[in-house]
Fold this sequence. Notes:
The protein is an alpha+beta fold and 244 residues long.
Amino acid sequence: MLDAPHRLIPLTLDREGAALRTIWGAMSLDEAAALEPHAHAYLAPEAQALLARLTVPARRAELLCGQWLVHRVARAWLGDDTRARVGRGAFGQPLVQAEALDVPDVTLSHAGGWVVALAFPHGHPIGIDLERVDAAHVETLAPMLGAAECAPADHALGRAAALTQLWALKEAVSKATLCGLVVKADALALEAIGWDPTGFVDTRYATFRQYRGRAWVGSRCAFAIALPFRTEPPARFPWPELLG
């Protein structure tokens, strides 16, 4: 099967002193055209059926690249000789299908021409979100944040970057909990927001109190991760290693 350009990074997190294995991956959506002839090799039947129904090129690219990247991080987790396919769960989440005892869960996001995936142990829910930073979106994002969810006036990359970080934190926990964005806005409320001078922001969740979140921002995108509150998130996001 075609090996499209992508990047994989193994990263160990700390869970109350125990090592928690994760594998992070990223690739450009520009690879979609090269992947399409090989879709049958990595898409499960339900994902193939969805691809056949999609007519918008951007949505087809997100499915082709997103599911292929999930396949790559799963193969890295399971071993390259393991046969695996990628399907979709009841809520559209990616599901790895393989005859193996240690099949990982995977979370996925795409924005700004990139797709990012993260493989993690089953039973330890994690959600991620990648958002493009765009000053034109400030007026859209601001009303979707609560009064206490305010960005610092002196944020190094500006108000748009800060608001995008906060919104990404909400999206990330909606994926970790599989509730999506169909819940009432206050169900995803952030609390105890802490802005670190090095550029990331930490939060707890008012409703999902068993989770914590951390978000970083670069020149083009913001990235957030939501994970069980006893698990320590990475100190830094590997921007250059993943997104160049």
